[in-house]
Amino acid sequence: MNSVGKIVHQNALQLEYFVFGQGAETIICFHGHGRSAFDFEFLAQENRRVISIHLFFHGNSLFPINRVEKEPLKTNEFIELFNLILTEEKVAQFHLLAFSQGGRFTLCLTPFFGQQIESLTLIAPDGMDNYSFYNWSSRQGLARKLFTYLEKKPHKVIRYSNLATKLKLMRPKVKTFVHEFASNPDTFRYASLTWRAFRLLLPDYDAISKTLKENDIPLLIIMGKFDQVIRPKQAYQFAEKLGIKACVVEIENGHNFFKKSAIPRFKDLLPYSS
Questions:
Q1: Do residues 26 and 93 lie in contact, with contact meaning Cβ atoms separated by under 8 Å?
Q2: For residue 80, what are the CA distances in angstroms to 87, 211, 270, 273?
Q3: Mean pLDDT, rounded, of the chain
Q4: Nearest of 256, 207, 260 to residue 230 by alpha carbon
Q5: CB 6 within 8 A of CB 88
Q6: What contacts 24+ positions apart, CB below 8 Å, involve 205-208?
Q7: pTM of the full structure
Q8: What is the DSSP letter of 200?
Q9: What domains sit in the chain, N to C, each tagged with a CATH number?
Q10: What angle do CA 37, 49, 120 make, to 5 degrees?
């Protein structure tokens, strides 16, 4: 299904998004790191509109490099851009769907749009624990300096991850995931930029729980049974934190949900009209 990218601006920030399909039902989607807005094109139908947003550092969505360290992205800035998309596309009610890194953006948005959200679906989402080592370390200056140094020497990341795995400080599947990013200098640089630039996007779990319950918003968290990057137990802990039961579903999958063979495993779980 053909679609042309659209752009919204706010100061020096720019978000690109694509609209697939048409109809009264609207799904707004956020992809994962290194993925694409086109991951969600398969959801489009004649009676369903899909608005898929490119995260910063992906596609033509822009975030100033000179702000990454000194002035990282703030939730209120992203909300302003998101509101521009809602206005431009005349969206009143919508479903939210997010994968991996897109989950953190979606969780930050949720408390501010409770009366408009029809459902919230998260696929192996980031953002379920603000104090995980991955998220906590992004807010530590020394850790960011180390990553800035390693951006120019990704081969050292591979060496360190091999050592960490031997010492049983890193799981083998995580090592493989790290190698995928570090094997390409550009890919690794953008991974470092997003890790540093998004460090202040901290979901408010109490506010999320209150919003979901007060507005009776269905929550579905789809996890890969074999995912070693974002593991199922993190989703169960997150659901408990929100005080919402029976919202986690595991499927026979790792972390890559958008290869062709994986989509049929979760497509029928999604809470949208056929």
A1: yes
A2: 11, 19, 28, 29
A3: 92
A4: 256
A5: yes
A6: 205/238, 205/241, 205/242, 207/110, 207/111, 208/107, 208/110, 208/111, 208/242
A7: 0.91
A8: T
A9: 6-129+201-269 (3.40.50.1820), 140-195 (no CATH)
A10: 70
